[in-house]
Amino acid sequence: MKRPVFLCLFMAVGMAGVFAAGALRVEGESVWDFGQVKAGRVVSNKFILKNSGSQTVKIERTDTSCGCTVGKISRIKLEPFDEAKVEVSFNSSGYQGKVEQKIFVRTDEAENPVVELMIKADVIK
């Protein structure tokens, strides 16, 4: 009789640890395809990040795979269930053909410290 109570208590404590960490997730797609873009144009898209965990998540910075791409974050501290927008701009000057660029959102989360976003374009003259 004592065994099932102990087992339930052990499972409850274990599950509390699972939900204690922050959980920054992309709402919707993490990849955005601009399609055909005329060379020289600057295009942008907004991604939504949501803290679906029970702890505050701090966004430390955004990095990109190239200087032609910029990621701006709307807020750096997300309480549980808060959202932040990441506006990503791509300058197509100097490019031709298919392009893929990555945006890295770096956080203070221990288990998932980097959220990766991607943009694509087919740059035409």
Residue share in helix: 10-25%
CATH architecture: Sandwich
**How many distinct folded domains?**
1
Please, what is the average pLDDT? 86
Q: How are the strands ordered across the major sheet?
A: 2-9-8-4-6
How far the N terminus sits from the C terminus, by CA atoms, comes to 76 Å
Number of strand elements: 9
CATH superfamily annotation: Immunoglobulins
Strand fraction band? over 45%
Biggest sheet descriptor: 5 strands, mixed
CATH class: Mainly Beta
- The third-level CATH topology is Immunoglobulin-like
Spatial shape = elongated
How would you portray this structure in words?
The structure is a single chain. With 125 residues, the protein is of the alpha+beta class. It has one helix at residues 2-20; strands spanning 24-27, 31-38, 42-51, 57-64, 69-73, 77-78, 83-91, 97-107, 114-124. The protein has a single domain, classed as Immunoglobulin-like (Sandwich). β8 (97-107) and β9 (114-124) form a beta hairpin. The longest helix is centred in the first third of the chain and has 19 residues, at 2-20.
List the helices and strands and how they pair.
Blueprint: H1 2-20, E1 24-27, E2 31-38, E3 42-51, E4 57-64, E5 69-73, E6 77-78, E7 83-91, E8 97-107, E9 114-124
Parallel strand pairs: 2-9
Antiparallel strand pairs: 1-3, 3-7, 4-6, 4-8, 5-7, 8-9
Descriptive keywords:
single chain, 125 residues, alpha+beta, Immunoglobulin-like, five-stranded mixed sheet, four-stranded antiparallel sheet, 1 helix, 15% helix
